[in-house]
Predict the structure of Probable membrane transporter protein.
Amino acid sequence: MNAGGFAVLCAVVVFGALLQVAIGFGLGLLAAPVIALIAPELVPAVIVVLATGVTAVVLLLDRGHIDLRGTGWALAGRVPGVVAGALLVAALPTRVLALCVAGMVVLGVVVSLWGYRPRPTRRAVVLAGMASGVMGTATAIGGPPMSMVWQRYAGPRLRSTMSGFFLVGSVMSLAALAVTGSVTGESLGYALLLAPAAALGVALARPLGRRLDVRRTRAVAMLLAVAGAATLTVQQFV
């Protein structure tokens, strides 16, 4: 990877981590297509490692607001989803996995814009956790199902509940990916190199979060994510 590509990755990780802290998800949605475009062999391990650190910080900051019961049911659904996602990563060629990343980005944006507000019943939360497990482990984009089922939450409760789920879920995904041989020394090395960018995004989130228009910020993030997914898709056919 050249210096220009690494600089782009750093910028995306900073913005993705900022968004993750501000609204509870966004790191995978933004970073996955860019990393898949520049260094596809690093997907999904690098983002899962970075997400683990970022969500741990968010949970620490907002720990008093977490919905423990909802998080528990979501994690129960995540377990079979993680297994399925890890098997997909081990079985799919790089090109197909890249297209899956692009597809998950588009799906995530559609879900966010749809406006459907399901009740967070036990069944809905378990199913969302399962879908998030498959998507998050295979493509590092597991936020959309949970943001849909928990969108009735707001502020610290949304951030802490999402972060509690993703912290444990990311550890699950990382363990499953390691078992299938999808976590390499190279991916861990790049995660370490990108960690300062993630830390900067976390540090900027609180002071900037009070000044940012959340709706406009999400719209910009979605446009960037779709642009990345479109570019990634085109790259697979040229």
Remarks:
- Residues 3-235 form one domain.
- The longest helix spans residues 155-179.
